[in-house]
Design brief:
The chain is of the alpha+beta class. The protein has nine helices and 14 strands. 33% of the residues lie in helices and 34% in strands.
Amino acid sequence: MIRGVTAGSIQIRRGASDDLPQIREFTHNTFSWGDYLPRAWNDWARSKRGALLVAEINHKIVGTIHVRYLEHREAWLEGVRVHQEYRQRGIASTLIQAAHADAKKKKCRVIRLETGAHNVAAQHAFKKLGYRRRAAYVVFKGAACAEETNQVRLAQARDLQVCWALWQQSWVRRASKTIVPAVYGWRWWELTRTRLANDIRGKRVWVAPRGFMILREMDRDFDVTLLVGTKRDAVKLLQAGRMLAQQRGREDIYWLAPAVAHSKEWADAAEYTLDDDGLLVYAREL
């Protein structure tokens, strides 16, 4: 651990593609499987829809953060990393505060982030910076299968009104406080009627007589990001998700669900098992 680090010695600047070699040095083993950040770095550095920031001490990069700007004046904080030798020296807090300042310049009204339920140290740090927990999620996993499910079809434009009404009346809306996984990347946002309409146009919404689900397909995962309806139709939709996973060459499908008893009941009925028991979404007004 490096001693003698003060807030005044930390310099914050925009990240660039040329910084990637230094970033790789302290992010190659962030998780058991590595880290997504080096793969995302160049896209983040070029994107105009966010701000990539790095912290330097004596011209050495010791930390980084990315803030992404979403629609409806929302921002998403991600990729907070600090060099192992420079932790507990205020670098993460300095980066987060710099991200807040950048988001304010973009007129964002709220900024959110996600952390693990077991990462107590991070939760305390976020609370000190003005964040409050908004929603708790768990992840269930279902094995792909070829069994077909009746009465489940791809949504059409005419289904928007019914789907929106189901959402407005659902326990899922109350449990999630309207904050749901986004359909692009690993982030959460507020579900709006416009976003639901976009998902229907993008052929990501599947409906049953009294329910619907939104699917997200990424390189690594195939996910149910939202499931709404009666238990009977929700189970049908989850089973249909397993069939769609099979058709798309996936071994499994994951359901990101509010951390409440109803979710487990539905998962058990559809033969999904618990895969991750704690994802917390925090938010801060700007």
